[in-house]
Amino acid sequence: MEQYLLYILMLLIPFSCASCASTEDSEKPLVKVTHKVLSNITDQLNCRAYGHSPKKISMTWYQNEEPVHNNWSETETFPLPDSTYLSRLILNITTHHDEVYSCHVSHSSLKSPLVVEWGLPEESSSEPIGAIITICLAGIVIFVVTIVVSVLITKFRKK
To answer: Which of 83, 88, 142, 155 has a CA between 20 and 30 Å from the CA of residue 40?
Structure first.
């Protein structure tokens, strides 16, 4: 579902932000680490950096202070309507209660990397930003559908 919403966001941004002013200002990323249980032994860690500008960002997972080399997942970056960006890095892990994972984020707006830790599975966090993004996407979709329907109705009336 999240992949689908991010795909829709990528498709709709050019239409909804055609008149947005581009900014050369540097905006610091806000970083959040969440997890979701995939199975009895596997969790998925999500590191999200949002609100950053410029687009270029470096995100790395660490396990017990050692970099995790994960060949299947790379940082994905998506434009947001306010001319900033949302980036994410996903890591699937085998659940161990004694390991600490951290997401290290480097960006030109930061003097030093931001480090956000994820420890025990009990630390499951709610994702209010997910609800906000979903609501915004729903609004954008309704807006675009309304425009398309209006254009189609106008075309058919002219014929």
So the answer is: 88
Instruction: Using alpha carbons, select from 98, 85, 97 the residue that is nearest to residue 13.
Output: 85
Evaluate whether 1 touches 66 at the Cβ level (below 8 Å): no
User: 34 and 48 in contact (C-beta within 8 Å)?
Assistant: yes
| Residue 4: Cβ-neighbour burial (10 angstroms; 0-12, 13-18, 19+) | exposed
Terminal-to-terminal C-alpha distance of the chain:
40
Does the pTM exceed 0.85? no
Check: CB of residue 67 under 8 Å from CB of residue 59. Answer: no
Q: What is the pLDDT along the chain (159 residues), one digit of tens a residue?
A: 555 555 555 555 544 443 344 445 688 999 999 988 888 888 889 999 999 999 999 999 998 888 887 766 788 999 999 999 999 999 988 876 778 889 999 999 999 999 998 865 444 444 567 778 888 888 899 999 999 999 989 888 877
Q: In this structure, what DSSP letter does residue 27 have?
A: B
Q: Which domains does the chain have, with CATH numbers?
A: 2-158 (2.60.40.10)
